[in-house]
């Protein structure tokens, strides 16, 4: 683990993991990512902003303000729900997610997901 600069050393969030994947695995991951990214982008709604290229928080705030302004101009009711899903990935059922992935992926890739 590599400590993050300016973070308290007694906090687990203050460290970055070190990747020890072999070179072949890294190349394989890049090839797979390059092939599936267009498919993923085509299937994710344009309103999904988290962890996407050219979809920043600022864009989402701008979109929200536009929707609120439009609703108020038309004298309609405007409601919103804001959820804080911090550390959501840590709460995902990883075994279930891997099971689902293995059931829909080609055998070559699903074999890659198995522990050594």
From TrEMBL:
UniProt-listed InterPro entries: DNA/RNA_pol_sf, RT_dom
PROSITE patterns listed in its UniProt record: RT_POL
GO molecular function terms noted in the UniProt entry: RNA-directed DNA polymerase activity
Domain Reverse transcriptase: 1-116
Keyword annotations of the record: Nucleotidyltransferase, RNA-directed DNA polymerase, Transferase
SUPFAM superfamilies: DNA/RNA polymerases (SSF56672)
Name of this chain's protein: Reverse transcriptase domain
Source organism per UniProt: Cinara cedri
């Amino acid at each position: 683990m590599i400590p993050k600069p300016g973070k308290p050393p007694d906090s687990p969030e203050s460290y970055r993991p070190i990747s020890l994947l072999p070179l072949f695995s890294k190349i394989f991951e890049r090839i797979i990512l390059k092939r599936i990214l267009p498919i993923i982008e085509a299937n994710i709604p344009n309103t999904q902003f988290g962890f996407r290229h050219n979809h920043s928080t600022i864009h989402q705030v701008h979109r929200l303000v536009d929707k609120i302004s439009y609703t108020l101009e038309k004298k309609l009711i405007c409601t919103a729900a804001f959820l804080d899903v911090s550390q959501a990935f840590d709460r995902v059922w990883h075994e279930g997610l891997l099971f689902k992935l293995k059931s829909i992926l080609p055998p070559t890739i699903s074999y890659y997901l198995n522990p050594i």
